[in-house]
What does this fold into?
Amino acid sequence: MREQLNKFLSVPGVGYAREHQEQYQKFGQLFIYYQSALEAYGEEYAKMAASSVQRFQDAVMKTVERKESVDSMQGLYNLWVDACEEAYAERAFSEDYAKAHGRLVNSLMALKKQGQALVDEML
It folds into this structure.
């Protein structure tokens, strides 16, 4: 569907308002690109979440294997936070995450710039 929409947005403008049409088409294309960048970033976060859950399970199993117990909700919460921080640290410094984050930020800034150009034109 994105491909079809992108083709539609690539049709050259005609008539006296073609410049306006081209600006709106560019905004639409940038929005599609931003949406795909956001999805890729979400996938990276999903991987991070899965890793957090796995690390938490491993931490709980290690606690059980050592015949220790978690005496409070605070102790359980601390295990969860440690697992999440480890997963985040591992994933945040990966090349895939850096590329996804960079693409997201760049596409958002391009979208905002085009949106501001549209507002300026209207005003």
Notes: The chain has four helices and no strands.
